[in-house]
Structures are given as C-alpha cells and as structure tokens.
C-alpha cells in the first residue's frame, strides 16, 4: 500500500518535470532553458526517425516510476529538533487516533483567543512557551497521503510533512550561498518595511497589507532589497528590539509562471508546486503563481483572509499561525472593503489592554500551529490567519481555486462586501441565515460547474 501511495504521490516531484525544463514558456526565460535533463552541453541534433514501440514506452515509464519511488524512499527525513524547539500541545487537540478517519465533528478544536495570547503573546520574539493550543492533524506524506487528501477535500486545515522533494529543498535553502546563486547577490526585489503610521498600526514589527489608496501614511512601506541587503538587515537586527522602527523587513519575491525573468526558477526548483493533480492542488488549473515571503524574528503579519485555497511550504526557520474559522469572522472586527487594508482585523492582538473596544474579540474561537522546515500547511478559502515569525524563516505558498461555501458569512462580516454597511458592532448575524445563504451559493456554483461554465 505504501509503495502504491509513493508511486502516485511522488510523481508530483520526481517525474514529468521536463515541462518546466524545456520549451515550457515562450522565449525560455527563467524557467530552466533548453536541453534535455541529463544531456551534455551543446545544441541538440535531429535524430533519425525511430520506429514507434509502445511496449518499450510502457517499460520506460514503469522504470522511471520505480526510479522515482527509489529516490523518494531513500530521501533522508529532516530532523525537527535541528531547527529549534516547538511547544508541546495542550490537552484537547487532535490525536493520532482522531486523524485516522474523516475529519471528526468539531474539528479542529478551538479555544478563546484570549487564552492563546495570554499563553504566548505575539510580541514575545523568539521566546516560546512549554505548550500551545494546536489541534490540526499532521500527516506523514509517505504513509498518510490518503488522509491528507481527504482532509483537503473536506476543506479543513491540516499539516503535511516528510515530502522528499521538500526535504531536499529545505537543506539547499539553508545555505545562504545557494540562495545567493538563485536570487542574485545584487538583484533588487520589492520588499516591505514596517512604517509606524496610518490609522491602524500596532508597532514597528507589525505588518499590514495596504493597497495604497487614500493613505498618505500607510502601516508598511515598500523598499528595494537584494539578497545581500536583507542578510545585512538581519545581522543589524540582532542588536535591536522588535519594537524599534525600521528594524524589521519582509523579503519578498514571486513568479507567476516559469517564464518570469527574476523568479521563474521557482517552478523548476519547487517541483511539488508545479500545477499537476496532487495533494497540493485541489484545482491545478487555477494556480496563480508561487509567492515567497522571508521573515525576520518578531515580524507579525496582521490577521486577514484570502479568497482562495492556500498551500504554504516552510523551508527554513519557524513560523506560528493563529487560525480562525470563517464562521467566526465577525468576532475579528475586520476593516471595510474600501479601507486601504480591507479584510484585515483592526484589533491589536498583542495588546489585551486595547480590547475593551472589541467586546466579542477575546472569546473568538481560535487555534494555532507552528510550521517548521519541511512542513506544509493547508488553509481552506477564507480561513483567517495571523502570522508570527519566531525566528528568521523562509516560506512560499501557492493557491488553487476557491470554495465559496463560507463566502456568505465572510462577506457579511467584512463591511462593504454586502449592502448592509451599518455599524459592525451590531449583533452577530444569524448563523442559520448565513448557512442557508452559503448553501444556496454552493448549489448555484455546483450547477454552474456541471454546465462547464467556469
């Protein structure tokens, strides 16, 4: 059974990569250039026509699949302890037995956000507690792939680890010299620095996306940094508090396709994020690029939701996620759609003394998880997340379509997404009405898909 899973699963990262290695994009830019994998340098010469032999083709395909399995089984797992400690788990989280079948009723277990913050304040820097409120299931790619796919299809969060291709990349990316060769020592990328300004800003280490509209003093500012520039920023930050202005930076780069001149190499490097049917993609054709964000110790990405499924890969360092189910969106006090930082929570999660203006927030159901190198985290559409960099860390994510079953509640709780623009401190919308609206929306979506009208 394990071998069958490996044959099916590891074809993700070890076979059919040629599509991104030769002729994948017009002009061949960034995606790996010409030539066949394993061939020597020099132009390819036309060969004499060969007789088609279907039996030989099948034998070659079987041989290649067997070789992929052999490579995968031989890949050494990452040592989780080698990247720093991870807190233990409080009682009540998901156990191995709970994760053996379909997602149980009430999965994942949730706790009031006030308990999570009291136990582990987001502004704690690299300090970690003995335990945390984790309840998402964690699956081994080699032996529990079927369970992971079932959880993905049920549209619930989970972690996945021990993916051989991922383990190999994590080892490579831990070498700064390797990253310099990939990114270029002096190539400038559009990065971010915190900027203590704007009408919603919670500190020099708190980053909140802004679209720049009608905001003369935004909570972040764009800066141009090279790889070497960013390494210098990390070194300088060692002697600075996370609360000191201009001490924390996000290093960012993305590739929309293999032909991207600056970062198209990501599609060749991260074989598991090539858009193919596998556990990482519910709808491969709906992929919208690969996006990487490297954080410094203490950096916080404020809570928000994304309108698509998200698969997040952790390559280096540790990153903490506080997660909130879309059904509880109204407890987050989201900024309005037309706000420069719309769909983000306006609450300062790290400062309980400020919560008196947000009476529903302290008891908002939530849970948390820590990503370490080699981990993947699946977040369904609209699943809200608040991200804390425990130490210097590298993360990339990719998206694949969306599921709109919880669109109604998210739109209702994000001012400006519905016709009702009254004070968002009003009573929480009726849950049964929202679920009925969501069901109606899903039925319409299913009918649309059956007609092929995508």
Could you give a quick summary of the protein structure above?
The protein is α+β, with helices and mostly antiparallel strands and 454 residues long.
Secondary-structure map with pairings?
Blueprint: H1 2-14, H2 54-73, E1 88-89, E2 111-112, H3 113-119, E3 131-132, E4 138-140, H4 145-153, E5 158-161, H5 164-173, H6 176-183, E6 189-194, E7 206-207, E8 220-225, H7 227-237, E9 249-255, H8 265-269, E10 287-295, E11 300-304, E12 310-316, E13 319-324, E14 365-371, E15 376-379, E16 384-389, E17 393-400, H9 407-413, H10 431-450
Parallel strand pairs: 1-3, 4-5, 7-11
Antiparallel strand pairs: 2-14, 5-15, 6-8, 6-9, 9-10, 10-17, 11-16, 12-15, 12-17, 13-14, 13-16
Helix pairs in contact: 1-2, 9-10
Detailed description of the structure:
Mean pLDDT is 80; it is low at 1-50, 69-74, 420-435 and 437-454. The chain is built from 10 helices and 17 strands. The strands form 3 sheets. Strands 4-5-15-12-17-10-9-6-8 form a 9-stranded mixed β-sheet. Strands 2-14-13-16-11-7 form a 6-stranded mixed β-sheet. It has helices at residues 2-14, 54-73, 113-119, 145-153, 164-173, 176-183, 227-237, 265-269, 407-413, 431-450, and strands spanning 88-89, 111-112, 131-132, 138-140, 158-161, 189-194, 206-207, 220-225, 249-255, 287-295, 300-304, 310-316, 319-324, 365-371, 376-379, 384-389, 393-400. By secondary structure, the protein is α+β, with helices and mostly antiparallel strands. The two termini are 36 Å apart. Strand 4, helix 4 (145-153) and strand 5 form a beta-alpha-beta unit. It has one domain (80-407): Jelly Rolls. Helix 1 (2-14) packs across helix 2. The longest helix has 20 residues, at 54-73. 41% of the residues are buried. 24% of the residues lie in helices and 19% in strands.
């Amino acid at each position: 059974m394990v071998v069958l899973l490996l044959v099916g699963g590891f074809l993700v990262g070890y076979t059919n990569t040629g599509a991104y290695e030769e002729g994948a994009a017009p002009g061949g830019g960034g995606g790996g250039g010409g030539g066949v994998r394993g061939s020597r340098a020099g132009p390819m010469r036309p060969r004499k026509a060969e007789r088609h032999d279907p039996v030989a083709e099948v034998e070659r395909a079987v041989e290649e699949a067997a070789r992929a399995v052999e490579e995968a089984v031989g890949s050494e797992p990452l040592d989780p302890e080698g990247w720093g400690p991870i807190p233990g788990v409080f009682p009540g989280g998901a156990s191995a037995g709970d994760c053996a079948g379909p997602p149980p009723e009430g999965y994942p277990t949730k706790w009031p956000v006030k308990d999570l913050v009291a136990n582990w304040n987001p502004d704690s820097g690299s300090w970690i507690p003995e335990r945390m409120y984790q309840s998402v299931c964690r699956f081994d790619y080699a032996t529990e792939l079927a369970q992971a796919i079932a959880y993905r299809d049920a549209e619930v969060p989970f972690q996945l680890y021990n993916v051989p291709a991922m383990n190999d990349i994590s080892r490579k990316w831990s070498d700064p010299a390797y990253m310099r060769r990939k990114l270029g020592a002096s190539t400038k990328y559009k990065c971010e620095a915190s900027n203590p300004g704007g009408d919603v800003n919670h500190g020099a280490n708190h980053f909140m996306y802004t679209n720049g509209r009608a905001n003369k003093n935004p909570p972040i500012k764009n800066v141009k940094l090279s790889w070497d520039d960013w390494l210098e920023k990390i070194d300088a930050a060692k002697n600075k508090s996370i609360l000191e202005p201009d001490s924390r930076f996000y290093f960012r780069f993305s590739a929309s396709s293999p032909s991207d001149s600056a970062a198209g190499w990501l599609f060749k490097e991260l074989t598991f994020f090539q858009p193919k049917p596998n556990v990482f993609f519910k709808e491969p054709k709906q992929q919208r690029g690969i996006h990487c964000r490297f954080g410094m110790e203490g950096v916080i990405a404020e809570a928000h939701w994304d309108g698509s499924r998200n698969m997040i890969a952790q390559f280096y360092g540790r990153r903490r996620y506080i997660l909130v189910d879309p059904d509880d969106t109204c407890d987050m006090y989201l900024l309005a759609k037309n706000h420069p930082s719309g769909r983000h929570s306006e609450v300062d999660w790290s400062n309980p003394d400020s919560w008196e203006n947000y009476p529903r927030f302290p008891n908002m159901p939530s849970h948390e998880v820590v990503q370490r190198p080699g981990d993947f985290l699946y977040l369904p559409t609209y699943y809200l997340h608040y991200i804390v960099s425990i130490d210097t860390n590298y993360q990339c994510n990719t998206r694949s379509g969306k599921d709109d079953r919880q669109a109604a509640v998210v739109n209702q709780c994000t001012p400006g997404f519905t016709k009702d623009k009254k004070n968002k401190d009003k009573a929480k919308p009726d849950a049964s009405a929202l679920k009925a609206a969501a069901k109606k929306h899903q039925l319409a979506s299913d009918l649309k898909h059956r007609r092929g009208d995508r």
